[in-house]
Amino acid sequence: MERAFTLADYASLAELRYQIRRFLHFSEQASRMAGLEPRQHQLMLALKGLPANVRPRIGELAERLQVRHHSAVELVNRLCAGGYVRRHRGGEDGREVLLSLTPKGERVLRELSLHHRAELRMRGPALIEALRRVIHVSKKVNRVPARAASRVRRKTQG
Question: What is the pLDDT of residues 105-131, one digit of tens each?
Fold first, then answer.
């Protein structure tokens, strides 16, 4: 079962949060330098990186950004106004609104993505090590025998 957190647990989680925050700070600054708000960049990246079987609709992007639908609509409105994204009709009856990046959006996203990849290559090892420490500490101390874990699952499910 769960155990109390040790000082090492807190330290490893704090380090992971710090490394994530460092990368996010870099990303926010890079987005602003490119003339975008960070969420606009996130939406463009989510749009470009959607799995092939997912239709590029606002609802899908809202889910990927973990924002409400109306917030995603506002982000798309601003990106359309800036010439980064365009709306077009899809579906058999034309009621579905699909999104795509414009050539300008593709260009800006490519530049930002190159900067992000370079940053991850430089700082990624520290992020990976911080994650590894959190997982290692958790696995090492929180091992629960298989029978006990299955009893806990049955109790919580039923």
Answer: 999 999 999 999 999 999 999 999 999
Q: What is the pLDDT, as a whole number, of residue 3?
A: 72
Total domain count, the chain: 1
Q: 72, 58 in Cβ contact below 8 A? A: yes
Taking the CB of residue 114, how many other CB atoms lie within 10 A of it? 10
Contact 144, 152 (CB under 8 A): yes
Query: What distance in Å separates the CA atoms of residue 156 and residue 154, rounded to the nearest whole number?
Result: 6
**What is the average pLDDT value for the chain, to the nearest integer?**
88
Q: Which domain holds residue 66?
A: 7-157
The rounded distance, in Å, linking the Cα atoms of 44 and 47 is 5
Structure letter (DSSP) for residue 34: T
Beta partners for 98?
88
